[in-house]
Every structure is written in C-alpha cells, then in structure tokens.
Amino acid sequence: MKKLAILLFIPFFGFSQTMNNEKLETIYKSVSDSIQGQAGGWEFYIKQTPFISITDTNHNRMRIISPIADSNSLSEELIKACLVANFHTALDVKYAVSDGILWAVFIHPLKELSEDQVKDAVSQVYYANINFGTTFTSTSLSFPGNITNEKETKVEKKPKFKKA
Length: 164
Fold this sequence. Notes:
The chain is of the alpha+beta class. 32% of the residues lie in helices and 26% in strands. The protein has helices spanning 2-13, 21-31, 76-88, 115-130, and strands spanning 34-38, 41-46, 49-56, 61-70, 94-98, 101-109.
C-alpha cells in the first residue's frame, strides 16, 4: 500500500512551479504595451487598459488587478450582474470593490503559477474589464445556470442543503 501511495505522488513533484518576481516581470513585459515599476509592484497597459500587479513573496501571494469604474456610480443592477458573473462567467477572475473602485481581480499563490497561467490570468483580467456592462465574461467559457437578467421570482422557503 505504501508503494502505491508513493507512486501516486511522484508525478506531482516534477511539476511544481517556481514563479517569482523576475519571471513575472519578464511575462508582463512580453504581453504589455508599456510597463513601469519594480519587483513586487508593476503598472502596465494593454490596449490602453491599465493593470497593477502586486506580489508578497513572504506570504506566497500575488494579484493582478485592473480598475473598471467608480463603485459609487454603479446601479444595483450592475452590482448584481457582477455577482452573477463571479459565479458563471468571470471564471478565475472576480469583480471586487476596494477603495471606491470596481476592479477585475486575479488572486493566486505566487510560486505555484506557471508562465501560461500568468498569461491566461492577464487575459482574463483584460476581458473581464472590457466586457463589464455587456457580457461580463473573462473567456468564452461560462458555467451553466441562469445567467440572464430576468427578475427573480420570490422564493417562499430557503433551499436546504444537507451536510454530507
């Protein structure tokens, strides 16, 4: 039994990622139109869309964010659409509010990222930003469910979820 457990985990050791600030900067330079900053904090643009990336190597965290709108100017309908998108169409990116700004946000452990995942994250943040107010999508994929803007019917009872 021990041999089987060891054999199941061996493939995972060879695929660990070692993303760091130097690799991130190289990736950002390759995908952006302009970039400024230093290790751990960059501002860059893609097709006039602003991005900020911040890392914390001590805590193995990173985020890529892009400002979309003044959150105080958003209607209740737009806020609700963002929440629905977070479940169905925003995928790895989420819409979030901080400091009075609506952002497209990707947050992830730093070291575990691959180059392709970083490029995909930048793409998803870009599309979540530019598709805000229309499709609210970060890719062409969406999870199934009611994603229309139809008015909700009043539910008499809350759905009950059973513990497994």
